[in-house]
Design goal:
Elements lengths: L1 E4 L8 H14 L4 E5 L5 H9 L4 E4 L5 H18 L2 E5 L6 H7 L4 E6 L3 H22 L12 H6 L4 E6 L9 H11 L2 E2 L10 H4 L24 H17 L10 H5 L6 H15 L9
Parallel strand pairs: 1-4, 1-5, 2-3, 2-4, 5-6, 6-7
Helix pairs in contact: 1-2, 3-4, 9-11
The chain binds adenosine-5'-triphosphate and magnesium ion.
Adenosine-5'-triphosphate binds next to helix 1.
Amino acid sequence: MIISMTNAKGGVGKTTLAVHLAAWLHLYDLKAALFDCDAQRLSSWWMKTAEPGVDVYVAEGAEEEERAVAIDELLPRLAEEYDAVVVDAPGGLGREAGAILSHADAVLIPTGTSGLDWEGLYWTTSTIKEIQKLRNEAPEGIENLNISEDERRKYLLPNAAIIPVQAEEGHVAMADLREFAHGVQFGMTTATLPYRQKHIHITPKRFHQKGLVDRPGSLMWNTGRNKEVRDAALDIDAVFQEVFPEVCAVDPYRVGEQVATRRTIDAVKWEIDNRTARRSHGRERIAS
Ligand SMILES: Nc1ncnc2c1ncn2[C@@H]1O[C@H](COP(=O)(O)OP(=O)(O)OP(=O)(O)O)[C@@H](O)[C@H]1O
Ligand SMILES: [Mg+2]
């Protein structure tokens, strides 16, 4: 399965989520790879230092067009070799994004909720809709046809879901976002990724001053066991558990156990069960 993090707008959390999703699938024993398609090459750098157990690939090429060709060639091959290929797409909707979306089974769209984010979201969802039509030869007016959910999903590749970032239930724009997702018939997770300062500490960092050792990247759930880290790790876990319930169905506590001390483990399990119960109503499944 190919899962892409895509948004026309930059800086919304694509790289953060791509790195964590590939590592999360690996934690759940899937053969997972990260495919870094952004010329910034940040996710590949991050992953290599944070979780060497996840295979990393990069879309080579100095120009956009070259990278798009590399994506077209490599992505189908990776999909055959791995259970899951997580793609970190560049911001924008250029040639690379087109190549990725023409192969992806699922596209996750992390987004903020400001006016600027809406602009990016609008272009992103419109483009995905166009690609769904081109890829699947869906009948005219598919949105209004009275067909089963399974039948409809066949015409909607890549399946798409919106993930609210730096937003929480109750924020002013959340209801609008939900209405928008419903209107375009995309999923939207009920779990969100609120703003968490800890994100500053998990990225790799190059110290340019002489004598300092570079800091490797980390995954949120490998970063410590204090409450701040645990909350941030469980936010990310909650989003992935919601999108891929079948992956973690047997044992939903793996991330929780990474961030829990012996004394707090019951509390963490309670919290995970509680979050699951809260969001089970209206859960969106976008991948099978
Ligand atoms: N939930 C969060 N709370 C606080 N900071 C966050 C959160 N998620 C991501 N960030 C931070 O926001 C910044 C942008 O995130 P990231 O690089 O993942 O976005 P991106 O969409 O990949 O950006 P680009 O379009 O440049 O590739 C980073 O500094 C990251 O550490
Ligand atoms: Mg990025």
